[in-house]
């Protein structure tokens, strides 16, 4: 294989090699290039010690990113390039990171500490591919396999168990038999991994082309990732449908919660999702439950009410969800009516905040106070949505006077 790295990356490698040291592109960029996918970043590894790398790039801007682990960031043509010295890891005491690292002058030593064979390849601009663990063969065979003993790799960092599933899902690969056995037998290591790290991997796994197969084969492992709140049977039940849903992690997590009738707030807390993500997942899950029971709304007013609850992007997600799973079989008519609403008015009034009247106006017009003002505004919005009142100040003022709500009741 031949890699065509950007010139700023090649400049860094040539500078290292011109100083008498070796340098390789390494890891994910080599894997992606071998798959015919454009790498999104490039990592460089070298036998030069950190102090030597600093000397080599003394006329460059260099950021000491992780000096004790041998990593420096060289700014080349305005872009950051990570350069790391070949290293071997010391003992792993916390199932996450080595207690120490030692530098080495052998590239094979460095590659031998990596997680999977497809990530343990290096590429030299001069000598081409270096693949001591059969990564290219495993790419051709579409296999995820640990470098060396799977049990050792997973004990070093329990998150690698989930990374194996993520690669199997995203690449749509099978997991090698010995690696698969260790994934299942050592899944308890995931209990000690932070929810933040797990959530980051899950979001990518759940959107992979192979997610359904991974769900079917490793449901009990993924259950641990969701901290047992979503039972493993759910993943088997979702296996046939998950890949037909939009490739949106919030949408797919909401689907799993809806499928097992779980508590969205509880799941999001367990995953340490952000407040924004939690609210989004809960809103999608609620809408999915409604659509599963009643189908997509069909009349203009109901669709506008839906538009008040969801963003336009989320309305498309829910429509695709309903269409994929056949809930109501009315997605085409929904889409037609929804598009008609947007075409007739690109910014229809569907929320109280979009009314052309404010709470202070209602207070002056009706004398209402506090919660009464909110009640009147909600009533006005309903009149606008059902096209019984135009969204103009004059029309809304007139309707507010007619409503004449005082103390929560009409007079």
Characterize the structure shown.
With 411 residues, this protein is an alpha+beta fold. It folds into 4 domains: 1-141, Beta Polymerase, domain 2; 157-240, Hydrophobic Seed Protein (Orthogonal Bundle), CATH 1.10.110.30; 292-344, no CATH class; 352-405. It is 51% helix and 11% strand. It contains 20 helices and 13 strands. It has helices at 7-18, 28-34, 50-56, 107-112, 135-141, 150-156, 159-170, 177-185, 195-205, 211-225, 232-238, 249-259, 264-271, 275-294, 300-309, 312-325, 331-344, 359-366, 371-385, 393-403; strands at residues 23-26, 43-46, 61-66, 71-76, 79-85, 87-89, 101-103, 122-124, 128-130, 143-144, 174-175, 405-406, 409-410. It has a 7-stranded mixed beta sheet with strand order 3-4-5-2-1-8-9. It has a two-stranded antiparallel ribbon with strand order 6-7. A two-stranded parallel sheet has the order 10-11. Strand 3 (61-66) and strand 4 (71-76) form a beta hairpin. Helix 12 (249-259) packs across helix 14 (275-294) and helix 13 (264-271) runs antiparallel to helix 14.
